[in-house]
Design a protein that fits this description.
Strand order of the largest sheet: 1-2
Distance between the termini: 34 Å
Largest sheet: 2 strands, antiparallel
Radius of gyration: 20 Å
Shape: elongated
Strand content: 5-15%
Helix content: 40-55%
């Protein structure tokens, strides 16, 4: 039979060279019943539970404004969304393209953003930066399907993770009484502009210091992770 992409099969065959090209000549193939797909997908080398707990602790220690605390708690206490956030990769390929990659990338960005925000002082709102780091790629929870392999969902193809992320944040904000409109707009702008340039998919270029820092940190963290993958 011809297996669908992502289906796990047991193969018998012979490795050989033909015209200096490596080939696998298959003699038999059968479906493996009850296999755990996660055993065949790349994973972060970091412990997911430890990263999730560190993220929660970081938010608790660094968020002082009640409305940002409420927004973060909406996300963390949304069991279906947060469990998928912990499991999903940060991309189909390129950077952090492995199970728990989105969590690893987000936590890294949160810590880097605070370091840079502290360096530039009072002109930068660290709490806003943390919100941007936390939510900038949250749309990838809905954008990527990893049930059998790393693929884009239909809504991921049609809308993309920036729009999906903005929709998710707007949903949480609508459930919080007296959440300020200015704070909502600033967080949404961070999501909308974090790719930095229109040609890279951002509907807006960064227009605040926090947005500029978020874009730079995202670019740095993703590029270094890509280098790590290449070296590995």
């Amino acid at each position: 039979f011809t297996p669908d992409k992502g289906i796990i099969v047991n193969v018998n065959g012979v490795y050989q060279n033909y015209n200096n090209v490596a080939q696998l000549k298959i003699s038999s193939m059968e479906l493996v019943e009850g296999a755990d797909v996660d055993d065949f997908l790349p994973k972060s080398d970091k412990n997911a539970l430890e990263m999730a707990n560190e993220l929660k602790k970081f938010l608790n220690q660094n968020l002082k404004s009640w409305y940002f605390k409420e927004l973060a708690n909406k996300f963390i206490n949304d069991d279906n969304i947060f469990s998928e956030f912990i499991r999903k990769p940060a991309a189909k390929s390129i950077h952090h393209a492995y199970i728990h990659g989105l969590l690893e990338h987000t936590l890294s960005m949160m810590k880097l953003c605070v370091l840079i925000g502290d360096y530039y002082g009072n002109d930068v709102n660290n709490e806003l930066l943390i919100m941007g780091a936390l939510f900038h790629d949250c749309g990838k929870i809905m954008e990527l399907d990893i049930e059998n392999s790393f693929e884009y969902t239909t809504e991921g193809k049609l809308l993309g993770h920036l729009i999906l992320g903005m929709e998710l944040v707007n949903k949480y904000v609508s459930e919080i009484d007296n959440f300020t409109e200015k704070a909502r707009q600033l967080v949404i702008h961070l999501i909308a502009s974090h790719h930095g340039y229109l040609e890279y998919g951002s509907p807006k270029r960064p227009k605040t210091k926090e947005a500029m820092i978020l874009h730079a940190v995202d670019n740095l963290d993703s590029k270094l992770a890509s280098m790590d993958s290449i070296f590995d």
